[in-house]
Fold:
Amino acid sequence: MRTATPPPVAPTGDHHDLAIALFAVIVLVTLAITVWVGRRGSAAEDFYAGGRDFTPLQNGFALSGDYLSAASFLGVAGLIALYGYDGVLYSIGFLVAWLVVLMLVAELVRNAGRYTLADVLALRLRRRKVRAAAGGASVVVTLFYLVAQMVGAGSLVALLLGTNSSGARTWTIVAVGGLMIVYVTVGGMRATTWIQIVKAVLLVAGSVLLTVLLMVRFHGDVAELMRQAAQHSGAGRRYLEPGLKYGASGTSRLDFFSLGLALVLGTAGLPHILSRFYTVPTARAARRSTMWAIGLVGGFYLMAIALGLGATALVGSAEVRQANPAGNTAVPLLALVLGGGNGSTGGVVLFALISAIAFATILAVVAGLTLASSAAFAHDIWAGAWRGRPRRGGRRAAVPASRRTRGGRARGEHVLGGATEREEVGVARIAAVVIGAVAIALSLFAQQMNVAFLVGLAFAVAASANLPVLLYSLFWRRFTVRGAVWSVYGGLVPAVLLVAFSPVVSGSKAALFPGVDFHWFPLENPGIVSIPLGFLAGWIGTLTSPEPADADRYAELEVRSLTGAGAA
Structure:
């Protein structure tokens, strides 16, 4: 294949109308789904778990839809376009993480919990402070993740409008935040799940289309694709070798190890992923959902690697970086070239289609994240911790069949701390508004950061605060209330503090505050320090606890998690 200089790829203003029209269609369709589904139920089980009647295939698509976020479609391909081999390592970490979910989490969490991570802990550690700690950590994790998605939305629409102005990105972030609040407050988990399913189908179909066009362009010659990518990367053969981003020094290599640890362990602690296992009727269905998700996610990341290489080969790393310094717009730019280039009808149509799919991806993921964070606040912090102690008994009074919801509970029945379902769901809707507003404000400061990198921080916090307490609770008989609280805060506080005093926030051109420098922690990802601290704090807290573990409650948790006896 003859080498050619990558063409200019900035879309012209004459063709923005088509892309904007497709964006509008995506928004209208998702809003229609939300309104239609939102009328079907208002009980807590409908709002938090979608009635628990989704099939494994449906939930598998929804799981992959929740997981394949802007970080996957925009960020990972962008990192590969800019850094080659080192960018590929992101996709490997994201994929391997699902093995941890499948082997250790999916079935046990479905059996032991009801709506949130704190429900699993409360089965053997029925204390308000445990719910408060787990709920607070879940809110922090989802906020990190929300920022990444909304930054991706700002980059995408700015490219669509042919401008790099901060104003376009700002208004896009505000609009996405408003839409996600509507999705959650009106439709709950049922609407969010169907939006995820639709989005997953669109995302996989769009990725397949681009990958096929790319392979046709290079006549199926992957070696030629890699050669062209190296030639137009600006780094030559180094583009195809490890070290372009993480090999400059010992610190950068350590940073990569920290990132990999966070990616592999973080998925099992993500609140919006854990909540998905409660939308299916049984633990077996949860496991089958995970297997479907692994297949879809694995296939997608293989295509993401090809698309990242294709963006470098056909667009060029310099042009990708010029359109967005973090590389978040590499895939839409590749679509423009594959469709025929700037000014061509095919190029404009494909660019608009892929941009609309990416926008749908962002809308769906932010809805799931907002729902998970609002559920953590309302169900765990407000109802479980603030309103009073959860009931010690797991049995519910008999409810007439005419008054039962799908989960067997009567509408309006008291659930935690004296709160009724109606009150709790109302608080969750208010929390969605507040959390959405906070996410919008934080996103405005992070507009120039790569979305995959931002998600890496969310994974680090999840792996540090949520995973240790979850594994200890499920598998360690001696685990106590003090151990649980120390484990959550022992991972959460160091992770957040290390991020605050890292090059992510200050001391570099790409930092949140590039004009100042108060960083002292050298790594960009805190996982290598904060994850072990979370496990260590839980271990020390348990050994020094004045109150021994309750053997009967652990036995109850063990039987329920392994057999499903008594599960919701």
